[in-house]
Amino acid sequence: MRAAAAVLRRLGIFALTAVLASMVVFALLAVVPGDPAQVALGLTATPEKLAAARAEMGLDRPLPVQYLDWATGLLGGDLGTSAVTGRPVGPELASRAWVTAVLVAAGMAVAVLVAVPMGVVAAVRRRRPDGMLLSGLSQVGIAVPAFLAGLLLITVFAVRLQWFPSGGWTRDGDGLADLLSYLVLPAISLGVVQGAVLARYVRSAVLDVLREDYLRTARAKGLPPLRALLRHGLRNAAIPVLTVGGVQLGVMLVGAVVVEKVFVINGLGSMLLEKVGNRDMVAVQGIVTVLVLAVLVINLVVDLLYTVIDPRLREAP
């Protein structure tokens, strides 16, 4: 019963946070300079036409009424109509969102594959040359921006070696091999940097676990340090790492904006930059809301995974 109550409480907090976040996004973009009606009609529009366009868009109503109308549409999947193109924002956003989702998922996979082995070995062999070398490499990785890593990867693997495309994305009908060829370089550039950050937290968490009495007992019984850690300690070390991993996944959603620009990928990041440049605030509002909700969902999933990793939290009050 306590576990079910804890889940319901977390879902309630998520719903309340999502509502508050949507209010903040709507309020901030509502006060940004720029008139959607002016964007739609152009600078030569007469005041009468502007007033009619504002009335048609509902911009002449009080902000609370506008928010309720927008939030109601949002619950039904309606993100509004672009003031620039005159088309619904939702279908275009959905077509771009899956590209960013695939890129971020691949980048997170790269980050985990880099961080976990590097952090564990750096902690277990911290006083040996290879452990110190891995710690140093993680520090170097933290200092390298994702866009610079992308440019270096393009220079080496796309321009000189010609192993992968330098940019772009697959088209409808392309197979898995084509998708992977376009995905490898941007996923590495996005994931390696975050993996270096995550490796530092893995190392710190593993060091804390290695100092616990039950690990000392396991080693005293003859288990090698790495085997004792894998058998008895990784689950306890996973909780702080999971927390940081959730944060890093949210950071990747933002970092994807830059990576998509470097590799000319038509994802949410490229769409956001395009709509900001066109002053299409209706579309910007929809994109920002989707990104904020995605981060909130990530945090909710991380909270729920705590109880899977540590059974003691299921009975926590």
How would you describe the overall organization of this protein?
Residues 97-306 form the ABC transmembrane type-1 domain. One of its GO terms (molecular function) is dipeptide transmembrane transporter activity. With 317 residues, the chain is mainly α. It has a domain at 101-279: MetI-like (MetI-like fold), CATH 1.10.3720.10. The chain is 77% helix and 0% strand. The chain has twelve helices and no strands. Helix 6 crosses helix 8 (176-210) and helix 11 packs antiparallel against helix 12 (281-309). The longest helix has 38 residues, at 225-262. The radius of gyration is 24 Å and the shape is globular. The chain starts with a helix and ends in an 8-residue tail after the last helix. The mean pLDDT is 76.
Topology:
Elements: H1 2-30, H2 36-41, H3 47-57, H4 63-75, H5 89-124, H6 129-143, H7 146-160, H8 176-210, H9 213-220, H10 225-262, H11 268-277, H12 281-309
Main location: membrane
InterPro entries: BPD_transp_1_N, MetI-like, MetI-like_sf
Family: Belongs to the binding-protein-dependent transport system permease family.
Report the C-alpha radius of gyration, rounded.
24 Å
- CATH architecture of the domain at 101-279, please? Orthogonal Bundle
Number of strands: 0
Tell me the strand percentage band: under 5%
Tally of helical segments: 12
Taken in chain order, the helices and strands follow as HHHHHHHHHHHH
Q: How far is the first residue's CA from the last residue's CA? A: 11 Å
Percent of residues in helices comes to: over 70%
CATH superfamily of the domain at 101-279: MetI-like
Low-confidence stretches: none
In CATH terms, what is the fold-level topology of the domain at 101-279? MetI-like fold
The dominant shape is globular
Could you tell me the mean pLDDT? 76
Q: Would you tell me the structural class of the helices and strands?
A: mainly alpha
Largest sheet composition = none
CATH structural class of the domain at 101-279: Mainly Alpha
InterPro entries: BPD_transp_1_N, MetI-like, MetI-like_sf
Membrane topology: Multi-pass membrane protein
GO cellular component, one term: plasma membrane
Main location: membrane
